[in-house]
Amino acid sequence: MGFVLKLKILAVIPTLNDDPTETIRSLKSQTIKVSRILVAVGSKDLYQKLALNNDYENVEYVYVKPNFKDPLGRRIATALNYVLSMVKLEDYDYLLRVDADTVLPKHFIEENLKVNADCVGKAGYAMLLKMNCFLRVFKGRFAEVGAEDSYIGLKLLSKGYSVLPWTLPPKVKRRSGAHHTWRYYFTRGMEMYKLGYEPVHVAEVIRHDIRNVFTILGYFVAIVKGLKHYDFADWVFRTQLKRLLYGKHAILSTRK
Q1: 195 near 149, Cβ under 8 Å?
Q2: Could you give the angle at which helices 72-84 and 148-158 cross, rounded to 10 degrees?
Q3: What is the tens place of the pLDDT at every residue in 164-213?
Q4: What domains are there in the chain, each with its CATH number?
Q5: Distance in angstroms (rounded) separating the CA atoms of residues 134 and 119
Q6: Which one-letter DSSP state was computed for residue 235?
Q7: CA–centroid distance for 217 within its chain
Q8: What CA–CA distance (Å, rounded) separates 229 from 215?
């Protein structure tokens, strides 16, 4: 694994109110060095606190005023795109997107680089992307949609790129979804429709969390409204339908 020591890795962390200090420490402790860390902060008070007490080298905090009329995923993508616009992305080999309530084991990057996938990680709280792939497919920008992490994974898969689960998973400090409102689940359902999820898989999510009743509602509201599908939605629908018929799991989860 000696060659990976020469890789340049850009890490980006979106946060509204979560203090990202523990996440940053875990990035700084990686066995494969992270070249630069950019933190998009949606709270002015938190931004001022972090900026005034920044003792870390190659860590930058950027305040990005959130638009609370937008769904969570779009707000996150907008904030990330703002900080990415400050960087020459071509100078980096990998992009690591990590949520502020996530801690990475010290071998996280090293172990997940070994699979040599275009994208490692099925959820936004820790995704490791090859930068040349991110630039080629997404023009160096996160899609400003309601489920930006699922959008990345599914679009890459539809184009034949490799998307694999973590070899070594991250640690989420709080129970996934604990802070989400019913609106998040409703939007998630609408996104599942636009992504191309078939109804059986959507109905099945109720097993994970009773709040997913709003996911199901959002999905069927999207049908009634006739919302436009994303350009790879037909591929998602066909692939999931085939896997259901053969008794296999659906391709990727929209759970964050």
Answers
A1: no
A2: 80
A3: 999 999 998 865 555 678 888 999 999 999 999 999 889 888 887 888 89
A4: 2-172 (3.90.550.10), 182-245 (no CATH)
A5: 9
A6: H
A7: 24
A8: 17
